[in-house]
Write a structure and sequence with these properties.
By secondary structure, this protein is of the alpha/beta class. The protein has 9 helices and 9 strands. Helix 7 crosses helix 9 and helix 8 crosses helix 9.
Length: 292
Amino acid sequence: MTEKKKELNVGLVMPIAPIDGCSAEHWIDVKRIIHESLSALPEYTCDPKIVSEGNSVGLIHKRIVEGLYTSDIIVCDVSCKNPNVMFELGMRLAFDKPTVIIKDDQTDYSFDTGVIEHLQYPRDLRYKDIVEFKEQLAAKVKATYEDSLKDPSHSPFLKSFGTFKVASIKESEVSSEQFIVETLKDIQSELTTVKGAISSTVGSPISKVRTFVAKTSRLEEATTDLLLLHLSGLRARNELSEPVDISELVELISKQLRGAGFKDPQLEIYIIIEKILNLNNIEYIPGIQSFM
């Protein structure tokens, strides 16, 4: 009789947008490599997901924190030292829960996390080296997780600096009615944010859009930020069960970016949006001919 596999909840913290010469497709490939590595674990069944990809409906930041706290183990790719990734890694380490850190061979070690072992892979994703990396990653995840089960005092990071009280998230039992009310409040809050971000700039100061994208001068990053807000709104309204009309997204986002000073970037925006939708496994209706 075949022994039933145990379910292992693996969260991913990694870049998804272009950074330091690495394209969105590059991160899709890295995510696929991680998935293939951990899917090969004989004792466990797991479907690694980026921590923001929770099943619950609500604020994306809330899903990220919940994913960081509730995942059995986190695999964090600190390649290119993406600020969001480093922040989320810091939160996970503050929870002092099982974490495996990986990086490419072009990224230097960070001072604060250098005491933790990093698994390294080639940035060019050479086949021979990647095969070896996948074996190392699977073994490391298995060993790290099982060590945490055997040893109640298991500490991947904080023990290196002394004795600390580990951060935790208070969990309380609520009635179904209270849960529904709180969920609706989260949805209402998110819709308000999204509505403000995607509303027409006609009759409103262009400076609002300028402020929103002022934190980046790169079209890829500005488009990614706006797209994630749109997707959050669609998810909150349960509209991601149907294929997304990519042409509508391009029109909405390009209108905002033109108001912020970008010049007719529709074709580039289409390509960027298509990459992000593919990365998040979101079905869409193609329409690139409209922007050629």
